[in-house]
């Protein structure tokens, strides 16, 4: 009996001696962006990456774990029993717009302590509602209406709603600001309406509020925080629909059918804010054994025609632009060619040693779906397979402390970071330098979350956001910043919160704020100082 009690006592002693896992807690508030008052019954999410020690001197982290809490009447939330680590915070509440918060960018929780998170600010949603009608004022059902932010650069997924049997629509969860509304009624692309001899086929076209077919002529609808703009009417317009026909040729075609796609493309691509409009207007067709194809009911505009075949280990592909007006477009010829293969090697200038390098290329024509990527092998060689035959640009990614300095093709150094594969396979050499520049400076009136971007200077045409730019965070309380690994060249320094940076790819928005950008010239291995002025949301709204 004594031995048994001794064993139990030792077991209990050992168990309690190990102690419970060390944890901490996290508290904060969710507040209304307008009234600054706490928001009750908001759901808060804390997502953390927690260290699980190290292996071979390299820190290892457990998979991200999320926790939830509900705010009290005062808007206060509290998480208890959190493992030590850095946590990203976000909150949701019906009628409010969730803020965009990067994972792992919030407070650090330490064992035995309570961390204080910054206020999570939620803004009340804006709402736009109205109805869609035809030329006679009759309601039109099943029309997709999208609210595209005006002058806000690239918009991949604008808010949208479908009209009901009364023609009515309601678009919610809108961020305060100006919008352009576009209504699209999906037509049957292969059912041709019966018309009188000599009369053109007329179909509903994408129509912008109030009733125009050109986005530039559309009226802006501005919605404020917690505001609903109602009673708006979009009267759909019709336009002439024509036929696009031609022939696809290829050695692999044979007698089998070939699938083709015809995709709308507007100047500026997705950056024109019409990505969803372009995608919804796409259509497909099949070419018969003779390679001939027909796309009926195509409205005026610019399109990308593409096709590809993969048989018995061989692939061919082709892409071309097609401009459509008020007349049928016949005799379109699309030649399918074997895809290109690019081989090459990475060279470190001065005999330096490069760590792991990832390589990515993309087409220089934004309309053409082209590009690819690969991991550079330990011996410095790489292979890029299945590339479209077009002009390519290397995306200038580089390990820390390096930058991509030059591209050579067949031993000939190129003027920039571009190379041509329209003729087929190519051999490319990439030269990396370990002497990038550094940009430092200060930003007057900087607030929490402000970042400074060093954007390659595009001269009079605006910032070249198609190129890779470098950013650095502004140190709270000091208004200072530091951007490292900047390739030599001329740059414009832009200071703003991350959400506004994409908006500046819009030419009109850039024109309004370019006076606040600071110009700097970065030399190889040097440090340059600049002091950009802070750009705010109101600056983009100035006329």
Report what the structure shows:
With 543 residues, the chain is mainly beta. The protein folds into five domains: 101 residues, Sandwich (Immunoglobulin-like); 111 residues, Sandwich (Immunoglobulin-like), CATH 2.60.40; 99 residues, Sandwich (Immunoglobulin-like); 94 residues, Immunoglobulins (Immunoglobulin-like); 105 residues, Immunoglobulin-like, CATH 2.60.40. 7% of the residues lie in helices and 48% in strands. The protein has five helices and 44 strands. Strands 1, 6, 8, 10 and 11 form a five-stranded mixed sheet that branches. Strands 13, 14, 16, 18 and 19 form a five-stranded antiparallel sheet that branches. The longest helix has 17 residues. The protein is globular. The termini are far apart. The N terminus is likely disordered.
